[in-house]
Design a protein that fits this description.
11 helices, Rossmann fold, alpha/beta, binds D-glutamic acid, 10 strands, 260 residues, 46% helix
Length: 260
């Protein structure tokens, strides 16, 4: 019986829909979320900078919440830093990487769109995923930094018109590319899953990694009861207090303020 929480880490708000999916599957567990919002956006930093921010951020999460496992709920952080995290920390990690394999399984036209940060789009790790799982597909990779910023700073659930406007240029490109599957390769975009699906139309599959991550967390936890359920908590490193209070409430987390 291990009542320590499952930790979640992202540069910002992107990991919250991942936490929600894991919580649906494992409601008896406790959760602690850290947004390294002082160093957002990761997607426009060098790989070395991202790596050092992620190591420091996970160190903070361990200090404030003592998690038994951490979900690195950020594609950019996972592709750049997962190996090093596994070397440096003793707890298990579950990474989030672009769902290229499920998209290749779904695409009939063999044409896949992939929305991610510049860092992820340029990373060799992504190249490897495409070679391994989608070698016979055309994968249209779009670096979508403006959309990442929109979600972090401006998006509010229910404000569909603003989301549609922010998506418009990317949707145009994806439609022109005639893709029939779109991978949400940045966790921030899972907040916009509904709006992206609506804009692309019912014949295009919108795919992310939430189900695979939730299954993997379940596999890695020790079998048996989770222990006493604590209040789920959210920490941040930046100053966007009101915005994070609001999202904490939306996701049923206690807002705990700055971790450092
Ligand atoms: N949420 C992060 C991801 O999945 C990226 C956001 C950022 O650029 O910091 O890649």
């Amino acid at each position: 019986m291990d009542s320590r929480p499952i930790g979640f880490f992202d540069s910002g708000l992107g990991g919250l829909p991942y936490l929600a999916r894991v919580k649906e599957r494992l409601p008896e567990e406790s959760f602690a979320y850290l947004a390294d919002s002082a160093h957002f956006p990761y997607g426009e930093k060098s790989a070395d900078e991202v790596r050092s921010r992620v190591l420091a951020g996970i160190g903070l999460l361990c200090a404030v919440a003592d998690p038994k496992l951490v979900v690195v709920a950020c594609n950019t952080a996972s592709v750049v830093a997962l190996d090093e995290l596994r070397r440096k920390f003793r707890i298990p990690f579950v990474g989030v990487v672009p769902a290229v394999k499920p998209a290749a399984e779904r695409s009939e036209r063999r044409r896949i769109g992939l929305l991610a940060t510049s860092r992820t789009v340029d990373d060799r790790y992504l190249e490897g995923l495409i070679e391994s799982f989608a070698a016979d597909c055309e994968v249209v990779r779009l670096a979508a930094g403006d959309l990442v910023r929109f979600v972090e700073y401006d998006y509010l659930p229910g404000a569909e018109e603003a989301a549609e406007a922010a998506l418009r240029p990317l949707v145009r490109e994806l439609k022109e590319s005639r893709v029939d599957a779109v991978v949400l390769g940045c966790t921030h975009f899972t907040h916009l899953e509904g709006a992206i699906g609506k804009a692309m139309g019912a014949s295009v599959a919108i795919i992310d990694s939430r189900d695979g991550v939730a299954r993997q967390v379940g596999r890695l936890l020790d079998p048996g009861p989770a222990g006493s359920k604590e209040r789920d908590s959210l920490y941040l490193t930046g100053d966007a207090v009101e915005r994070y209070r609001r999202f904490a409430a939306l996701y049923g987390l206690d807002y705990r303020g700055r971790a450092a």
